[in-house]
Automatic annotation (TrEMBL):
Residues that bind Mg(2+): T40
Signal peptide: none
Domain of life assignment: Bacteria
Pfam family of the protein (one): Radical_SAM
Gene that specifies this protein: queE
Keyword Iron-sulfur attached: yes
This protein's name: 7-carboxy-7-deazaguanine synthase
Keywords (A to Z) from UniProt: 4Fe-4S, Iron, Iron-sulfur, Lyase, Magnesium, Metal-binding, Queuosine biosynthesis, S-adenosyl-L-methionine
Length: 214
């Protein structure tokens, strides 16, 4: 009854509507996708087996009410729902960053899911489980990481035709870091009057060039 954990660290939340808040990150090992742009390849394998209780102790040491479970792909591990529920029972605000290929109902509805819809440039868009768009809770967020104009058109079509239930502030468009200049994505959004939220990874601005632990 353990989870494979790649790293646990304390940083400023760099993504989602929670951006800017101090947050503890539990990064789980392993992923079922291989996105072309993935900035966290080091989490595809290396990691240490930890019990839920040990993870809770490591998290508690940071004295921070906000915790994000990420990876790798958190929903791949059988014990992840138990970890989420244990954190919620301790009173933490819990976020989960997930790649959109797996059923988000596996984890407690009180955990805020940030659900990627993979665009064609990732090479993994066939893996999207669009049923997740019908499973969103009120605070859940849908995220598109966009590397070029094709990705943008793909994301725009989904936002306009398949995201009726989601609040505009919870639809996130983020450029692939180092690939698509953020101002280009900003221009496309403004020109199309798209009701989405542009996001630039804050931690890459705060700590440029640092791959782990931020
Ligand atoms: C590393 S993933 C871990 C969680 C899950 N596997 C997923 O893809 O959502 C966390 C977030 O980082 C985003 N991401 C990864 N590489 C990126 C890059 N080069 N530029 C911008 N966002 C990136 C992913 O799309 C995802 O939204
Ligand atoms: N600071 C910081 N914020 C983040 N938000 C989501 C992250 C992730 O890798 O899932 C992440 C990350 O790696 N670092
Ligand atoms: S799903 Fe997430 S962790 Fe997996 S390869 Fe894609 S961005 Fe990286
Ligand atoms: Mg990251």
């Amino acid at each position: 009854m353990t989870l494979r954990v790649n790293e646990i660290f304390y940083s400023i939340q760099g993504e989602s509507t929670y951006v800017g808040r101090p947050c503890v990150f539990v990064r789980l090992t392993g992923c079922n996708l291989r996105c072309a742009y993935c900035d966290t390849r080091y989490a595809w394998d290396a990691g240490e087996e930890m019990s839920v209780d040990r993870i809770l102790m490591r998290v508690a040491a940071y004295d921070c009410p906000l915790v994000e479970i990420t990876g790798g792909e958190p929903l791949l591990q059988a014990e992840t729902p138990a970890l989420v529920s244990a954190l919620l029972r301790k009173g933490y605000e819990v976020l989960m960053e997930t790649n959109g290929s797996l059923d988000i109902r596996k984890a407690d509805a009180a955990c805020v899911k940030i659900v990627d819809i993979k665009c064609p440039g990732s090479g993994e868009s066939r893996q999207n489980d669009f049923e997740n768009l019908n499973r969103l809770g009120q605070r859940d967020q849908v995220k598109f990481v966009i590397g070029n104009r094709d990705d943008y058109e793909y994301a725009k079509d989904i936002v306009l035709n398949r995201c009726a239930g989601a609040e505009a502030g919870h639809l996130l468009f983020s450029p692939v870091s180092g690939k698509l200049p953020p101002d280009r994505l900003a221009r496309w959004i403004l020109d199309d009057r798209l009701r989405v939220r542009l996001q630039i990874q804050l931690h890459t601005i705060l700590w440029p060039g640092t791959e782990r632990g931020v």
